Amino acid sequence: MAANEDALMWVEKYRPKCLDEVIGLKDIVESLKAFMKKSKTMPHLLLAGVPGTGKTTIALAIAHELYGSNWKNFTLELNASDERGIDTVRDRIKDFSRYSRSGFGDIPFALIILDECDQMTGPAQTALRRIMEIGSRTSRFILICNQSSKIIEPIQSRCAIFRFSRVDRQAMKDHLQYIAKNENVTLQPEAAEQIVDYSEGDLRHAINALQTASAYREGVVDEKTVSMVIGEASPMQVQKMIRKALYGDFMEARKTMYDIMGNFGFSGSEIIRQVQREIFKMSDLTPEQRADLSGLIGEYDYRLTQGANSDIQLSALLSQFAKFGKNIEETYAAK
Amino acid sequence: MLRNDLLWVEKYRPKKIIDIMGNEDAKASFIEWLQNKRHNKKAVLLYGPPGVGKTALVNAAAKEYNFTIIEMNASDTRSEKAVNAVAKPATSYMALDNFSDTIKTKGNMLFLDEVDGIAGNEDRGGVSAIIKIIEESLVPVIMAANDPDVSKLRPLKKVCLLIRFQQVRIPLIIALLQKISSLEGVNAEFEALERIAQNSRGDVRSAINDLQSLSEHDHALTLQDTLMLSSRNKDIGMDETLREFFSAKSVGEASRLLRYSSIDYDNFLLSVSDNLPRRYTDPVELAQAYDSVSQADMFRGRIGTENWHLLKYFFNELTKAAAVNPESYKPFEFISPPIRIITLFWTKGKRSMLDGICLKIGSRCHVSKQTAKLDFVPFVKEILKRKKSINLIEWFKFTPEEADFLIKMSRF
């Protein structure tokens, strides 16, 4: 595999450059290669799937296949969640199609990769649909999203849709070992197992964890270093917030929540997503208690989408946690 | 005392149509109507939130197209009799001066401002009188309203051309505030103007008023000064209202209180949320009260900028939070100013530093800022901490400050 030698983050260094190098996505790669054979008639693509499963990699590999090392001149990469609205997206696409003109060599179009499309609102997607129609003479779109159900029907019907599932455990382990070998690091099998467990099918997460672990100790990654990395990378503040609320210290829990929002700029829905994940890792709760809490989280996740102030909705959720914690306490006391 | 007798809102009132910011479509359709289309529809209803330029447009247009404005607004009573007394003579003749070159007026235009303010009883027959005037009028009739959905106005909407005004966009307001600051010799921080503009919710008039009141002392305006903005507004009855709200003996009492109060309900909602845990120390009561506040916030979300008829449900839910358990009330000291504003103020530098770091990671590793923050920052930080790799810092193009910030940053 040709490594991207200049890159210092391993996720970039070992990102495959062409479709043949992509691991574990045989079916998708085969059908894409069929499209590539008649690249002039390549349709717009919609790549959907959970994070770290190769969507961006595939999109960039397609760019490489089409335009070779010159790909950056003919490819516009945009991230819907970073752009300030559909108007800036439209402007950037307009500017790009003006300068990139008609594409490269045999390829009569330029490529526009738009990541995190499911973050766009309905009206913005409708506008995007118009942009796609206007631009389709000179450009092909590769849209990337986590959930294709959040993409409006008219866009879906204009694209060939590919669904990505979590990366296979064995393929992931093999790939981690391959990277470790290239980097002259001994990755112990148990440690590899642990990274794969932790990353839940997200290859980007796994490679980042491996690289971080290798920075702890020269040449060897073992279970101990992996545990340390996982500990460091877990959301400590969110855990603290949940604990304080369940133990009845609502004021402190709410203060922690404002700290998380203030210091790191996390949105309400991002915090709620992390709370949900952390609840399921809390081994001192019974499965029933976790399910009950999860129900509460779901309710407030919904209210967050309706409400005007996410900090108020999160505070209300924390007050529910405090009430829940008091109930647990009383049940224990009764026993 | 003001340095100048003129309020800045008066001094910088737009004199020409082109000076009015934003709402380009609305402006264009109004001019189009005034020049060509008013023979099809004799009246026009301009509607939208306050302070976005409805009245300013009418005044500027009258000047540019040489009309004389006959105005009635909510401060005048608008019963049938009153409407007829003023409006009838104004609309029943065309300008005779067309024949003379010295006076170039095209005649009168009748301007009824704040028509949604026509009250039920005192203004009896007001709406039907207006409709009659419109039908018989020989001159253009212009009306302005904040909320066109008031049921009384429904008959009016049938005979008018409706033109919608929207909130003026924040960047436009910031630009205007910058211009005024420099004309008035005020040395203003950009962040401060930004906050005034955001606080105004697209209301240019209130933004200019705030700018003047905050900077009239010393020609200088800092972000710190604008913090006073919300607490100053808050002083007007906020603490008093909160105290009566939290000590209410019943939902009915709290409801009466809010109905007669004129406090800003967005600030009030935040203050109630801030102070709720001081009012209810029992977790069960607190959870119940917060549930109501959360419901109220959902209604606030649904109201957005136009569904104001939902406001009563917002208040209904909020009042439930006041009387979860009236017996448990003990006087307490209020948390002020709002926690959110204080937190966000002190952490602004940190957030923008982190934002810049995430943008750089994102452009290197093909991810969004949000993904960079979650999936890269914790790892990159650890790698840098363990091996202070200059190469990695250079590869990401981090500045020394950014690298330092990342290494010392506390965990999520």
Write the layout of secondary structure elements.
The complex is a heterodimer of chains A (335) and B (412).
Chain A: H1 10-13, H2 26-37, E1 44-49, H3 55-67, E2 75-79, H4 86-100, E3 110-115, H5 122-135, E4 139-145, H6 153-156, E5 159-164, H7 169-182, E6 186-187, H8 189-199, H9 203-216, E7 220-221, H10 223-233, H11 236-246, H12 250-264, H13 268-279, H14 287-306, H15 310-334
Parallel strand pairs in A: 1-4, 1-5, 2-3, 3-4, 6-7
Helix pairs in contact in A: 4-5, 8-9, 8-10, 9-10, 11-12, 11-15, 12-15, 13-14, 14-15
Chain B: H1 8-11, H2 24-35, E1 43-47, H3 54-64, E2 67-72, H4 80-91, E3 107-112, H5 126-136, E4 141-145, H6 154-158, E5 160-164, H7 170-183, E6 187-188, H8 190-200, H9 204-215, E7 220-221, H10 223-235, H11 238-246, H12 251-260, H13 265-279, H14 283-303, H15 311-322, H16 339-346, H17 348-365, H18 369-386, H19 390-396, H20 400-408
Parallel strand pairs in B: 1-4, 1-5, 2-3, 3-4, 6-7
Helix pairs in contact in B: 4-5, 7-8, 7-9, 8-9, 8-10, 11-12, 12-15, 13-14, 14-15, 17-18, 18-20
Please provide a written account of the structure:
The complex is a heterodimer of chains A (335) and B (412). With 335 residues, chain A is an alpha/beta fold. Chain A folds into three domains: 10-164, P-loop containing nucleotide triphosphate hydrolases (Rossmann fold, 3-Layer(aba) Sandwich), CATH 3.40.50; 169-233, Helicase, Ruva Protein, domain 3, CATH 1.10.8.60; 236-325, Up-down Bundle (Zinc Finger, Delta Prime, domain 3). In chain A, 58% of the residues lie in helices and 10% in strands. Chain A has 15 helices and seven strands. Chain A has helices at residues 10-13, 26-37, 55-67, 86-100, 122-135, 153-156, 169-182, 189-199, 203-216, 223-233, 236-246, 250-264, 268-279, 287-306, 310-334, and strands at 44-49, 75-79, 110-115, 139-145, 159-164, 186-187, 220-221. Chain A has a five-stranded parallel β-sheet with strand order 2-3-4-1-5, with helices on both faces. In chain A, strands 6-7 form a two-stranded parallel sheet. In chain A, β2 (75-79), α4 and β3 (110-115) form a beta-alpha-beta unit. In chain A, α4 packs parallel to α5 (122-135), α8 (189-199) packs parallel to α10 (223-233) and α12 runs antiparallel to α15 (310-334). The radius of gyration of chain A is 23 Å and the shape is globular. With 412 residues, chain B is of the alpha/beta class. Chain B folds into four domains: 23-164, Rossmann fold (3-Layer(aba) Sandwich), CATH 3.40.50.300; 170-233, Helicase, Ruva Protein, domain 3 (Orthogonal Bundle); 238-339, Up-down Bundle (Zinc Finger, Delta Prime, domain 3); 348-408, no CATH class. Helices cover 56% and strands 8% of the residues of chain B. Chain B is built from 20 helices and seven strands. In chain B, α8 packs parallel to α10 and α11 packs antiparallel against α12 (251-260). Chain B is globular, with a radius of gyration of 27 Å. At the A-B interface, α9, α10, α11, α12 and α14 of A face α13, α14, α16, α17 and α18 of B.
